[in-house]
Design goal:
alpha/beta, Rossmann fold, eight-stranded mixed beta sheet, four-stranded antiparallel beta sheet
Length: 315
């Protein structure tokens, strides 16, 4: 399933990773969220800012070369006052260009067979090269939860560079980070072990292959399933809704973060209600938070849904 396809063709400017990522988003992150009526207003709470600083190290950041010299990455650092500095990787501008070219070749069926034991990309989804604002918001929301994570299994869908997964692992959780492509999982594993001395279990998982491929679990269960900025396409939104329904049915709590105006969000909400009967606007706490846009140097709005499995069990 090539998530990117032909619409990569108009991309010509790759001045920064965020500029590159924003070019792919139909609506800008800084668009103000629309009002969704009084039901949402009553269910919504405002999350306080949890970090004291972040570091945009840009050109001065050390470069790390992964996957047999196929992927160059630079360090990114966010400091959480309750946890300290968390370092992750983002693909450099050069590697982003290479990923774009590879994705285009896959979309046009021009890619040649890769016999490498560590293929860079298989499906043509380049979204995992960047730390999105929603991942920082979900990470800080996890840190707000007053619980012992040491005996908790956390599964992240569409983990990308793995910020949320690394934060959960640092709090003591057993983490299974999943993504459609190999390269972001390699970035996440490398950052976890190199910078933080924690281990991530990783798994290739097609979000949209929900009929054939089950959610990863430990002994048949996962305490928490998380996702950040996955509703970037209607296709992935449908997949996320099915994965959310699966997680709730097996007793997992689900936390989802989205930047405002994601094109797949309405489809996600509609599909989830069809599958579970959950009306998110009425039944689920909606947390209006914020996430760090690393290249811009300020916070942007992010909406977080915290869905408990008891909601489904009561129906």
């Amino acid at each position: 399933m090539a998530l990117f396809g032909i619409f990569l063709a108009p991309l010509t400017s790759w001045s920064t990773s965020t500029a590159w990522a924003w070019t792919m988003v139909p609506r800008p992150f800084n668009m103000q969220p629309k009002c969704h009526g009084p039901q949402r207003h009553r269910a919504t709470t405002r999350a306080k800012s949890l970090w004291t600083s972040f570091q945009d190290e840009d050109n001065d950041a050390p470069i790390h070369v992964l996957m047999n010299d196929q992927l160059k990455c630079q360090e990114r650092c966010i400091e959480f006052p309750t946890l300290g500095k968390v370092r992750v990787l983002e693909a450099t501008e050069e590697s982003q260009e290479h990923l774009e070219q590879t994705a285009m070749a896959i979309a046009l069926n021009l890619a040649t067979k890769n016999d490498d034991d560590k293929p860079l990309m298989k499906e043509g989804d380049v979204y995992g090269a960047t730390v999105w604002p929603s991942s920082t918001a979900v990470a800080k929301y996890l840190l707000e939860q007053k619980q012992d994570w040491s005996n908790t299994t956390v599964v992240e869908l569409g983990a990308g560079p793995g910020l949320v997964s690394i934060v959960a692992a640092l709090k003591g959780a057993h983490v299974i980070a999943t993504d459609l492509e190999p390269f972001p999982l390699e970035m996440a594993r490398y950052a976890a072990s190199t910078f933080h001395n924690v281990t991530l279990e990783t798994q290739i998982l097609d979000l949209c292959d929900y009929e054939k491929t089950p959610l990863p679990t430990v002994d048949g269960a996962a305490d928490l399933v998380v996702a950040a900025d996955v509703n970037y396409l209607e296709e992935t939104a449908v997949g996320l809704a099915h994965r959310t329904a699966q997680a709730l049915a097996q007793g997992s709590r689900v936390i989802i973060g989205d930047s405002p105006e994601r094109p797949g969000r309405p489809v996600f909400l509609e599909t989830l209600q069809e599958l579970t009967g959950i009306n998110v606007e009425q039944d689920v706490p909606i947390i209006e938070s914020s996430g760090v846009a690393l290249d811009l140097g300020h916070e942007l709005p992010v909406t977080i849904l915290d869905i408990q499995p008891t909601i489904v069990q009561k129906r």
